[in-house]
Structure formats: C-alpha cells, structure tokens
Amino acid sequence: MARHVVVVGGGNAALCAAISACESGARVTLLERAPFDLRGGNTRFTAGAMRAVYEGVGDLVRLMPDLTQSEIERTDFSSYSAADFFDDIGRVTQYRCDPTLADRLVNDSFETLRWMQSHGVRFLPLYGRQSFNVDGRVRFWGGLTIETWGGGAGLVDALTAGARRAGVSLRYGVRAVRLAMQSGRIAGIHGRCDGRDEFIEADAVVLAAGGFEANPAWRARYLGPGWDLARVRGTRFNTGDGIQMAIDVGAAVRGHWSGCHAVGWDANAPEFGDLDVGDGFQKHSYPFGIMVNSRGQRFVDEGADFRNYTYAKYGREILAQPGQIAWQIFDAKVTHLLRDEYRIRQVTRVTGDSIAALAAKLDGIDAGALSNTVAEFNGAVDQSTPFDPTRKDGRAASALAPPKSNWANPLDTPPFEAYAVTCGITFTFGGLHVDANARVISEEGEPISGLYGAGELVGGLFYFNYPGGTGLTSGAVFGRLAGRGAATET
Ligand SMILES: Cc1cc2nc3c(=O)[nH]c(=O)nc-3n(C[C@H](O)[C@H](O)[C@H](O)COP(=O)(O)OP(=O)(O)OC[C@H]3O[C@@H](n4cnc5c(N)ncnc54)[C@H](O)[C@@H]3O)c2cc1C
C-alpha cells in the first residue's frame, strides 16, 4: 500500500513537498492552518522573485518559452553561475551558512525551477525590479532575474492546481499541533480543526509551517528586546508551530536564532500583512536617497551595496532608532527611479519645496538637525564620479560617518519627498537542523525516521542577511527533496 505522507503548511515549500511526494508514489494529505481565503503563507505575499543559476539566455529561454526574439535582442540578461550564487550566500551570511545546504540549494536551483514549470508554474523576467534601461538596452543586475507569473499569489495558485492534479488531498483550517512517535518513528500527527481534535496516521510528515516571525513573544525571546514591536510583513499564521512540534520529539535546532530578515516597511502598515497590498508596504529605494532618524541623523550606509544585499538587514537598523521610525528622503533628480511600491495608495509620503519645508511636516523630527545633515551630506558627495544606478558606481560621500558608498547625489532639486518607515519582519533565520536531503536531525545527530523539514523553518542557511529571492528557491529545493524522501523512505 502507498505510504501516507502528511505535509504541514500551505506555502511554496509545503506545496512543492506535497506534489513531489505524490509524484514519488505516496498518498498525500496537506494541512494548511489558514482558512482557504488566507491560504498560502508568506509565499502569497511575495513578488515571486526566485534566485537560480542560469548559464545565459539559453537557460532562460528553456525556463521562459514565452520570451520573444525582440525581448532577447534588447535585453542583457547576463548569467548567474553556481559560483556566483554560492559566493553571494557565503558573503552576505558572513560565511556562516551551512555549505552542504548551500551547495544543494545552489546546484538544484535551476533544475527545481524546471520541475516547478513541469507542474504548471510559469516564469517571467523580473523586469520591474531588477533591470534598468541603459542606452536603449535593458540590463539586469544583481543575479536575480526570474519571477513567477502572477507573483506570490500566482505561484500559490499554480502550485495548488498542480497539487490537485497530482492527487494531493488539501485541507484548510487545520492546525497541526503535535507529532506522534512510535518506536522512534513518526506514526502520525495531531491536529485541530473547527475546535475539534483529530489524529491522522502517517508514515512520514513534512514540516513546512514557516518560521516564528508572527509570534511576538518568541520574537522578543529569541530576536531580542524591541522585536515584539516590529510589524509582520506576511501571514499571521507562522508562529513557530512546526519548529516546536519537532523540538518536542527530539529535533535539534540550528542557525541564527537571534537573526531575521527585516526591511524598511511603511510606518503606518497594519500589524500583519494585507493580501490586497502584498509587499507594497516595503520601501527599497533608499540607495538613491538618504535615511534619517527622528534626531535628523543618518544611521546606515544607504549605498553600501545593491539593495538586494542590504535591504534584509536594514529593518533591524530602523528598529533600533528612537520610536522605531525613520524617513527616506529623495529629491526630484531620482524620484523617477523609485520602485513601484512608492506609488501605492497607502503610502506615507510627505513633500516639500525645500528641506526646511519638508522637515516641518515630519512628525517628531529635529528639523534643524535634518537641515544640517542634508547640508553636510551635499557637501561630501564626490561629484566627479558619474551616477549610474545599474552598477556600484563608487559615487560616494565617504568622509561621513556613516559614509554613503555608492549612488550619492546632493539633495538639491525640489520637490523633496520623505517616506516614513518602520521595521517590517519578513521571516526568522533560526530553525530546525536538516540535512541536505531535508531530513530532520535529532539532538543525537541522527535523522528522525519519517520526519522532514523545508522552507522558512530550516535553520543554518541564512545568517545576518540574505540574498533576495533565495527564500522561495530554498523552499522549492528542500520541499521537493522532503516530499521525495518522505514518500520513499524505507
Ligand atoms: C512581503 C514578503 C515578500 C517576500 N518576497 C519574496 C520574494 O520575492 N522572493 C523570495 O524568495 N522570498 C520572498 N519572501 C520570503 C518568502 O515568503 C519565504 O521565504 C517563503 O515564502 C517561505 O515559504 P514557506 O513555504 O517556508 O512558508 P510560508 O509560505 O509562510 O508557508 C507556511 C505555511 O504554514 C502554515 N502553518 C503555520 N503553522 C501551521 C500549523 N500549525 N499547521 C498547519 N499549517 C501551518 C501557514 O498558514 C502557511 O501557509 C517574502 C516574504 C514576504 C513576507
């Protein structure tokens, strides 16, 4: 008889695991805690950006057969090698990431996207956020070139349809609460649905229930004081259940438990993500302006690197400012470069014809200090180096503390715009110890029979920072492996 695999979660990692387990011959039940309307976890809030290795336009054409000849001709897609991807993960995690997991993630990335494609996921070039027009040619930068059709919502819909086609039984509004073990093996899982407890027998369980970013008590406990005050960018349902259930049966934990991905997020965004706005509350164009706190002072190098490599750690810096608030300030020379999220209806924007007029409208800011900061900044910009948003241009304001290392422009052209931001947490980095086949490892260092983990709840991959677009790829790679392992384990 076919093995019964229960998958816990309803996002990208869970859906990939469920499809893969079915494909490998198992009978599969997926338990999603959220009701149907709120299904899809953080995955549904994403833009669907996915980082993967590609050797050139030929690979992209295989992944995106809809690319037209004229698109190919007018675009410089460049390439993104396994070595590039591996280096990026190593560098941004300060070389703490588990090399075995990183290796698997990098080397399986392209082939896993092809596999997703075979289950109905469609991919497009990520024109809007990762490319610039240079002399009539579209040039991609930063190694992140691929997005899913319809963003995160499109990805959840495509994978859900794929799971149904594969024969997965999808159940919504079921919260998994406890694993059952027998003779050292997984024997089933306890769940709660409509106020009733139930027990589901299983030969194997894949945990893909997200991190603990939506649990303010765990945030304060593990990330540190103040983190209970962060806004949650995505789902309210990722409260650490999957991690806790595994720990309760002896799983080892791993990774950067005091670390997380957190970004600049509209200061007036709600406590949890809003599916109608998606990731529109993020504010990621700070490399083209300056960021100041309520004392009117800069506090990060806004141009340290491409935003891909800084945005995930700057949320923490904003949380550390008085009142957990900051303002991003731009002048008219660069507002055409601002990303689409600066033009949503729900944006907290203030404008002024001078810095003094702008400062007078910013609630609680030290206006005099802000004017001094801008004057000092303007005087420090090296204007002999040309501004080029498509590469690290070295146009710096290096004499300042902190410096601005690239894309520095004097703020001298009205109207000026300021955007109020706070810290929005995306996902947590600490999680379960899994091996390169997504098997959950016990505190004794052995795989726990029948237990697998994938997605955000895996620890050991990300430390301090994260290369944008890696979360979905990680969930897909390890979800697929987890499903296959759960279906075929002997
Ligand atoms: C606003 C935003 C934008 C992002 N943009 C990107 C991007 O463009 N590219 C990228 O790679 N990453 C992005 N990320 C990160 C990305 O969302 C995650 O890395 C990825 O979606 C995690 O997938 P997952 O399946 O592990 O978790 P999720 O998609 O969060 O799924 C976890 C699921 O578990 C369910 N669950 C929780 N507890 C239980 C329980 N007890 N029982 C049953 N089910 C349970 C939840 O309801 C949820 O459906 C973004 C995140 C956010 C919030």
Helix content: 25-40%
What composes the largest sheet? 6 strands, mixed
Bound molecule kinds, no repeats: flavin-adenine dinucleotide
**What is the multimeric organization of the chains shown?**
single chain
Low-confidence stretches: none
Strand order of the largest sheet: 9-2-1-13-23-22
Detailed description of the structure:
With 490 residues, the chain is an alpha/beta fold. The chain has 13 helices and 23 strands. The protein has helices spanning 12-23, 57-63, 69-74, 82-92, 99-118, 127-130, 151-166, 216-223, 241-248, 311-319, 355-361, 367-380, 470-488; strands spanning 4-8, 27-32, 49-50, 75-76, 123-125, 131-134, 137-140, 146-148, 169-172, 174-182, 185-193, 196-201, 204-207, 231-232, 253-254, 260-266, 290-292, 326-330, 349-352, 416-428, 431-432, 439-441, 447-453. The strands form six sheets. Strands 9-2-1-13-23-22 form a six-stranded mixed beta sheet, with helices on both faces. Strand 11 (185-193) and strand 12 form a beta hairpin. Helix 1 (12-23) packs parallel to helix 13 (470-488). The longest helix is centred in the N-terminal third of the chain and has 20 residues, at 99-118. Bound molecules: flavin-adenine dinucleotide. Flavin-adenine dinucleotide (FAD) is lined by residues 8-14, 31-34, 40-43, 45-50, 175-176, 208-210, 233-235, 237-238, 241, 273, 279, 426-427, 455-456, 469-472, 475.
